[in-house]
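Note to self: keep these together.
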Amino acid sequence: MKKRPSFPMKKPVFPVKILLICLFLSAIFLSAFTVVFTPEQEPQKKEIPGSKLFNDLVMHEVRIHFNVPAYWDSLKKFKEELDSNALTSFLPADLTIDGTKLAQVGIRFKGESSYEVQDDFKKSFKVKLNAYSKTTSYDGIKKINLNNSYADPTCMREKLYYDILRDMHCYAPRSAYARLYINNEYYGLYLMAETVDKEFLKNNFKDSTGDLFNGKPKAYFFWEDDDSLLYPKYYSLKSKKQHRTWSDFMHLIDLINNGNFLRDSIRKNFENTFDINQCLKVWALNNVLVNVDSYNMYYIHNFYIYKNSKTQRYLWLPYDGNYAFAAYTEDLTLSGTEKFKLLYLPDNREKRPLLSRLLKDSEYRQRYILFAEDIIQHYFTPEILNPRINRIEKLIKSAVYEDPMKKFSNDDFYNNLFNAVGDTAKAGKFQPGLKSFIVKRREYLQAQIAELRKLKIVK
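Structure:
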């Protein structure tokens, strides 16, 4: 067998010196096209509209100036018209936020219990910045709620409710505190809360073209009929009407009432139509915080339903959490609030088919319980909430103490951070202490979930 001839190795085509020269010239070439920014020129990440307005690390200042003498009477008249005839009117006023003046904005009263039960002075307000000029806004925001923290000596319950929701990655309003002045008179501490509107949808979904419904006090999600004219009295359409707006929404209600969830195809259709997890997370928090002013608790209140135009799924959007942390319960003592059942279903559950369908379904009920467990383990804890309460106390204390319109005393404000104020043996006559309620409520829920595991209701 012949040997394979050997050949001497050829030298590299590109000697090392040539390679180094090429690298050097490449570096010079690239540096010629590299833009170097000074600190002043460096591109800034675009902030989300409202980042400055809802910065909750500072105390804001809001000044409203009415140019008519009987402005309070006019506001009360507009509120009566809104409640009786659904006629919305705004009173013109000048507005100054943190030194920035906006001429001719619209002001009206807002709220139900916070309006009716509160005395004749410290009302909640809706501020519509673009009421008279479509281009008027502040920090990209066109509407603001000024909430009076009704039934809350600490003035923190609604703020904490929103913050926990957002920590849980639920879609909820941003909020921050402000000192409010009306015609140069200090009216006290208010919580500025984001409105669920077109700007809210853009900020959260990068799109606002979906259908937005606001649930009215009788928005049970009950199937009425296939006549779309029957539903607007229960659900207020807030977005621009689309071709299939009501028919699509009625399809959701039909699934809730008449869908056979035992059939995989129906169940999949329902889950593709409605974001169940988002809804159950909000409901679980409402229960943990004994926020009775909500659909899954006592009252059919305080929610929007939004059809995300990208996913084509309906989402549950909560708002207005001033009853959170058991601020008011008409039939519970202090012990009753602390031991409120996790799997609570109201007596009129047949009128709330969405609630009864979800919590009677074994899979969805388990998700709900697990969401509640996640909340008490990672969000509703003294380690997380007590430092937040302390920070807010430091921020708002002087504004509360100087508030001439508040319904509670300065001692009530401080004491209610720790302990209950009022008559704890009489329903609706007390507010649990924030820090003590967190401890007692967690203890009960942890024990109840452990019992549900023993009964194999949850795995």
